[in-house]
Amino acid sequence: MQKLPRNKSNDYTPEMAAERRAVVNAETGAELTHVGSYSIDPGLLPGNIENFVGVAQVPLGFAGPMLVNGEHAQGEFYVPMATSEGTLVASYSRGMRLTREAGGIKTTVIDDAMQRAPVFIFEDARAALKFGRWVEDNFEAIKAKAEETTSSGKLRNIEQYAAAKMRWLRFNFTCGDAAGQNMVSKATRHACMWMLDQGIPGLENFSLAANFDTDKKHSFVNSLHTRGKRAVAEVTLPGELVKDIMHTTPQDLFRQRQYSNMGALMAGSVCNGAHFANGITAMFIACGQDVANVAESSAGIVYSEVTEQGDYYFAATIPSLVVATYGGGTGLPTQRECLDVLGCYGKGGVHKFAEIVAATVLCGELSLASAIVADEWVSSHDAYGRNRP
């Protein structure tokens, strides 16, 4: 096969994209007419993609309006969702109608941290322990070194985890409105290079990353200690409203929740929710997030109860929601438009966006659970063409 052509001086042009499509067409016979139809300027893409040839067009719809009573997100929002799954936008819209008529969703971001976790390997466990104490004693100096590389990243604390003669340091940063993975990698490396220069007794080896920060994968440490934003969405639904809109009752929803909890436990699932990933993925694609972060962002926790008044309290917690409103793909034209719809683009928007994502997840959980209990799940897919023959 031919090598894909590249232009070292200016690789992000319509002409270079067309040359690469022509090579792929010649080698595979595949027509790339729709891939090659786009409105964005390729000159905006350095840092976002290599070997640019065109775009993958994903249908986009708006769900809502959704009423949010957050610390940062307040008011009604149309939520952009990019998906090819029929019924998805309709289902989330139904949950949004229910929660809107109930007075809205309360949202809170209760923690914020992004990590890199280097590992230091010593001649024995005693040397590793001594190093750990040195890190505690010299935290302020380590913090100052780490923050030399960034204007917005702040080192909050360093957790320590030990096994055998190894010691992992989990550096926790706040990162402003960026997701921060690259920011914290650079800052942590800079701090570690300074630490190594101090002379560490008994040190045999060092690695900047050894899978403890569990980037783009679920882990219990991230669920317990947060990666990205830890966001909670909660609502109390009047019983009559549940009957009128969802055709079920708080008692039946609560019973289904217990079945779902047991099913998740039996299956060894990392999440007791129904489909956090659906809403998160659709919003991530629409709003220029790193979609691979769905791996950790979708592992969430659902809790519910029937109140003494017979109403239904429901909460969704996302412990590792990795989002950004600045940098990465957020500034690309269509993604920026979607963030603008939410009033979240740019500096100062990330906590607002996190609250809107959490509220959206809650609406999807309520809608799907209600459809299952009311036996409307399969029929809704049929009605919206999901199960076309």
TrEMBL record:
GO terms for biological process: coenzyme A metabolic process; isoprenoid biosynthetic process. CDD domains: HMG-CoA_reductase_classI. This is hydroxymethylglutaryl-CoA reductase (NADPH). It holds the Pfam family HMG-CoA_red. Keywords: NADP, Oxidoreductase. It comes from Ketobacter alkanivorans. InterPro entries: HMG_CoA_Rdtase, HMG_CoA_Rdtase_cat_sf, HMG_CoA_Rdtase_eu_arc, HMG_CoA_Rdtase_NAD(P)-bd_sf, HMG_CoA_Rdtase_sub-bd_dom_sf. One of its GO terms (molecular function) is hydroxymethylglutaryl-CoA reductase (NADPH) activity. Its EC number is 1.1.1.34. SUPFAM superfamilies: NAD-binding domain of HMG-CoA reductase (SSF55035), Substrate-binding domain of HMG-CoA reductase (SSF56542). It comes from the Bacteria. Belongs to the HMG-CoA reductase family.
